[in-house]
């Protein structure tokens, strides 16, 4: 499509679908972009029928189709700018080259990624992010009969455990670093305030009855001859070993804020700062979902609807959803408290444990540095293909560093995309 979208939504997960459908049904011409081959995000990735939410993916997609939203999947946002006429755009790259998507209003639904913390042996083949392992299984990776350990923290572990169990994996253990007392406290809060979320967790647990759960424990080491063979699990005072073929590990989630930062949106406590209408510090740019606070599907959807109405100027409709959104924000606070990372995790990495996998930079080299910038200059930490997406949050947890705002391209892109002249004759360097 050529021309200018009234509203462009970046990210087609549950929140992005809700935002796009709401804005289009309010009369706007809407574009919806995502770098995955199909809409739905991680939670509604094809093959996941286990998630119970107020609106299914099929219902939202039907609303997207009925409202004639222009869906562009398989395109990744790499840059942002303004053309010669002063119209802002997002540059996206796909197999067919690049496109500049012009817009009047922008809604960012960029989601989150897993937090990985380095420990001895974490780079062995057979070790995945918990969500990444689930995605592989959904895409056809055969886990039948394989011995799997899920470790880290957060509610994602339960969902992944249930999915892999049903896919035929032998779940050896689920290792949650948060103590059971904190999780019981969370459950007591959810019982009166969010019984649906509590029941969802119980359903996951019932589907995996017999699986061993270790609360207040974490993986301290992985060993194997060329691939994962065994893991050491500890609670800080006692340790034991388990044999495993696969480890899915992730220490909750960190928000994807790179595009928002590139556009100049302000952050607060690591998340994109938004007003009550979901508008960021940049006029006509809104942000929703995990990028504004880790809270799951329900939060993303209600924020998406608020942003969609706000972008369309339907402020009273947006206001009618504030109470529902505030309830989800209270859940965000409880979730963060329940799964807060324990101090012992800072001491897992040894001198030769890689922290930056792209550039093979060990913990011992980084401990000599005093900032992210110094580490980049002296060790190339964060300068590999992931551009600090993996090691950046890890170094923030380990050393207290804060990475500077990203520069384009947000993701690795071809030289042709970076240096091309766009349709309006603007050259990007």
From TrEMBL:
SUPFAM superfamilies: FAD/NAD(P)-binding domain. This is FAD-dependent oxidoreductase. The lineage of its organism: Bacteria, Pseudomonadati, Acidobacteriota, Terriglobia, Terriglobales. Pfam families: Pyr_redox_2. InterPro entries: BFD-like_2Fe2S-bd_dom_sf, FAD/NAD-bd_sf, FAD/NAD-binding_dom, Metab_Enz_Cyan_OpOx_G3PDH, Opine_Oxase_asu/HCN_bsu. The keyword Oxidoreductase applies. Gene3D superfamilies: BFD-like [2Fe-2S]-binding domain, FAD/NAD(P)-binding domain. Keywords: Oxidoreductase. The keyword Oxidoreductase applies. Residues 5-303 form the FAD/NAD(P)-binding domain. Signal peptide: none annotated. It comes from the Bacteria. PANTHER family: ANAEROBIC GLYCEROL-3-PHOSPHATE DEHYDROGENASE SUBUNIT B. Transmembrane segments: none annotated.
């Amino acid at each position: 499509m050529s021309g200018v979208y009234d509203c462009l939504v970046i990210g087609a997960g549950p929140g992005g679908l809700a935002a796009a459908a709401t804005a289009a049904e309010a009369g706007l011409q809407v574009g919806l972009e995502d770098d995955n081959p199909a809409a739905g995000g991680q939670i509604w990735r094809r093959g996941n029928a286990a998630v119970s939410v107020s609106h299914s993916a099929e219902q939202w997609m039907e609303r997207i189709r009925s409202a004639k939203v222009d869906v562009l999947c398989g395109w990744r946002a790499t840059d942002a700018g303004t053309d010669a006429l002063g119209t802002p755009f997002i540059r996206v790259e796909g197999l067919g080259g690049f496109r500049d998507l012009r817009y009047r209003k922008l809604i960012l639904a960029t989601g989150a990624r897993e937090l990985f913390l380095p420990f001895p042996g974490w780079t062995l083949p057979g070790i995945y992010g918990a969500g990444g392992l689930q995605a592989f299984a959904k895409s056809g990776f055969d886990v039948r009969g394989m011995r799997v350990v899920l470790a880290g923290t957060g509610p994602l572990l339960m969902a992944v455990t249930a999915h892999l169990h049903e896919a035929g994996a032998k779940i050896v253990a689920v290792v949650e670093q948060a103590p059971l007392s904190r999780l019981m406290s969370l459950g007591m809060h959810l019982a009166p305030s969010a019984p649906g979320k509590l029941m969802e967790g119980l359903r996951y647990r019932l589907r995996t009855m017999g699986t061993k759960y270790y609360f207040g424990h974490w993986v301290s080491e992985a060993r194997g001859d060329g691939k994962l063979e065994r893991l050491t699990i500890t609670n800080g005072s006692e340790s034991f070993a388990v044999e495993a073929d696969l480890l899915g590990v992730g220490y909750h989630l960190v928000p994807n804020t790179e595009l928002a930062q590139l556009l100049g949106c302000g952050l607060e406590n690591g998340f994109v700062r938004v007003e009550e209408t979901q508008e960021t510090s940049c006029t006509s740019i809104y942000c929703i979902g995990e990028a504004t606070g880790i809270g799951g599907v329900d939060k993303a959807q209600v924020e998406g609807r608020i942003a969609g109405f706000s972008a369309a100027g339907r402020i009273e409709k947006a206001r009618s959803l504030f109470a529902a959104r505030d309830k989800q924000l209270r859940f965000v606070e409880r979730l963060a408290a329940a799964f807060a990372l324990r101090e012992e995790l800072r001491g897992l990495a040894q001198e030769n444990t890689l922290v930056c996998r792209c550039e093979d930079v060990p913990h011992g080299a980084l401990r000599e540095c005093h900032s992210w910038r110094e580490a980049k200059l002296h060790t190339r930490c964060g300068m590999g293909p992931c551009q600090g997406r993996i090691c950046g949050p890890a170094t923030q947890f380990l050393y207290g560093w804060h990475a500077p705002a990203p520069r384009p391209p947000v993701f690795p892109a071809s030289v042709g995309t970076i240096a091309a002249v766009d349709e309006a004759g603007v050259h990007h360097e």
